[in-house]
Amino acid sequence: MVLSRRIRPAALTSALALAALIGVTAPAQAGAAPDAAPPAVTPRAETPALHDDAAGGDADADDPAIWRNAADPDRSLVIATAKQGGLRVYDLAAREVQSLPAPAAPGPDHAPGRFNNVDLVHGLRLSSGRADLAVTSDRGGDRLRFYRIAPDGRHGPLTDVTDPAAPPVFSSSQEEIDEQRTAYGLATWTDKATGRSYALVSRRERTSIALLELTPTANGTVGYRRVRTLDLPADFRLPNGTSWRPCAEPGELPQVEGMVVDPANGTLYAGQEDVGIWRLRADLTGTPKLVDKVREYGVPGTYDEQTEECVAGADPGYGGTRLTADVEGLTLVTERDGDGLLLASSQGDNTFVAYDREVSDANEYEGGFRVAPASAALDGSEECDGAAALAAPLGSAYPDGLLVVQDGHDAPGDGERPSTNFKFLDLGDVLDAVDG
User: Fold this and answer.
1) How many C-beta atoms surround the C-beta of residue 348 within 10 A?
2) DSSP 124-158
3) Per mean pLDDT, which range of 168-182, 367-381, 414-428 is the poorest?
C-alpha cells in the first residue's frame, strides 16, 4: 500500500522512555468494525477563494479564529491566516473586510513571512489600555506577530502592534530560520491564577512545544519571552515490544500543529499529526497523556525518495478507530457549566471527531460529522487544516454560535489553480449532528 500523502518523522530514541511513561502502549480495539459514515452538516457561507500562486499573492487558507464583538455581536469578525498571503479578516457574511500582508523577506536569499496559525488574547493590558489581540505564528520568520482588534479602526479592525525587537521563537540565526524548522502551531492561554497571558507554539518538523509569556512594552507593542520547552516523543514502544516511528522524509520528526487550551482548567490539547491527540498542562509541566491515536499508529512505513511518499507495511492493529492522519485543527466548544466538546479535524478521511471536554470523563468519544456541500456553488470541506468554534450568540446570523473550518479544496473553483477558503457553519447544526 502506498500512502499518497507525505507523512512526517524520524527518530529520537531518548523519547522511548517518555513514551513508556505516557501510557501509549495499550493496544486500541484492533479489528473493530468501522462506524457508519458520520452525519453531514452543510455550511451557511464561505469566504472568497484564495489562490496559492503568483497571481493570487501566494495566499493559502489555513487557520481561523472568531472574535465576538460584545457591544454589537452582528459585527463580530473571523480572523484567518493565508500563509504567505498574510492575514484575512471577514465579517459574519464571510465577506473580506481587511487583508494584512505577511512581512517581506529580510533579504533576497531569505524566507518571507508566512502566517500559519492564529489565536486570540482577550483583555491584555497594554500601555494604552486593555485590548483584544490576534496572535499569529509567522513560520517564515520564526516569530509571533500581534494585532490589536478595534472594529472601528481607522485603517481596518486590525492594527499591527508587534514589538520590532521580538526574537525568533526557536532559531538562533537567520540561516537557521531559512531552514524553516520554525514557529508552526499556536494556541493562547491566560492563566486564571495569575492573569498572565501566554502563547504555546510548536515547531515545524520537530516535536517541540514552547511556552512564551506575552510581554507588553511601554510604547504599546507586544513581545514575548520563553518560559520553557517540552519535547513530545518521536518514537513509541508498541505492545509487541518493538519501537515505531511515523514515516517521513529523512530528518523530519512528527510535528504538532493543531492546539487549543481549555481556559477553565489550563489543559492543552495538541495534535501530533501522524500520532494522535495529547492532553497536558498548558504550563508544560507534568506528564502528557495520549488520549486518542490515529488509525495509522504503529503502521511501519518506508520513505521512497523518488515518489516522495511512504510505502506502508502491514497494519499491526495498534491504532485508534476515529482519527485518520493527519490530526489537524483542534477547537473547543465551551459551556459555562464545564460541559462541551473538543473537536478535531481528521484530515485523512475529511471528517471531524468530537470528544467530551471534561477530563473527568477521560475525553470520551461523543460522535463525529462531516462538512458536506450545501449546493453546487457552496461546497463542503476537504483536507481541513484549521478550525475554530465559538459557543456564543453572534447576532442574527449565528444565534447558536459559529464553527469555521478551512477547506483545502474549494469547489467549483478554477481547476488550473490551487484554491482554498473557509466555511462558516451554524454551531447548533453541528451539535445536533454530534448528539444525533
Assistant:
1) 21
2) EEETTEEEEEEEEEETTTTEEEEEEE-TT-TT-SE
3) 414-428
Cell 477563494 belongs to 49
3-state secondary structure of 333: strand
Number of H helices, E strands in the chain: 3, 31
> What are the residues facing 81 on neighbouring strands?
87
Do the strands 256-262 and 2-3 form a parallel or antiparallel pair, or are they unpaired?
unpaired
pLDDT of residue 347: 97
CA distance 356 to 332: 10
Q: How many CB atoms lie within 10 A of CB 214?
A: 21
Model confidence pLDDT, tens digit, residues 21-62: 444 434 333 333 446 789 999 999 999 999 999 999 999 999
CA distance 436 to 428: 12
Position 214: which residue type? L
Please, is 5 exposed, middle or buried when counting C-beta atoms within 10 Å of its C-beta (0-12, 13-18, 19+)? Answer: middle
Q: Over the stretch 173-217, which tens digit does the pLDDT of each residue have?
A: 999 999 999 999 999 999 999 999 999 999 999 999 999 999 999
Closest-CA residue to 8 (of 388, 273, 329, 371): 273
Q: Could you identify the residue written with the cell 473586510?
A: 97
Report if pTM > 0.85.
yes
Q: Rounded CA gap, 92 and 233, in Å?
A: 40
Cβ–Cβ < 8 Å for 204, 137: no
Q: Under 8 Å CB-to-CB from 187, ≥6 apart: which residues?
A: 119, 199, 200, 259, 260, 261, 268
| Confidence band, pLDDT 50/70/90 cuts, at residue 416 | confident
Three cell numbers at 343?
A: 473537536
Q: Find out whether 274 and 7 touch, Cβ atoms under 8 Å.
A: yes
Q: What strands lie across the sheet with 143-149, from one edge to the other?
A: 115-126, 129-138, 143-149, 158-160
At 225, list the grid cell: 519571552
Peptide bond just before 239 cis, omega within 30 deg: no
Residues 394, 415: contact at Cβ < 8 Å? no
Sequence letter at residue 271: G
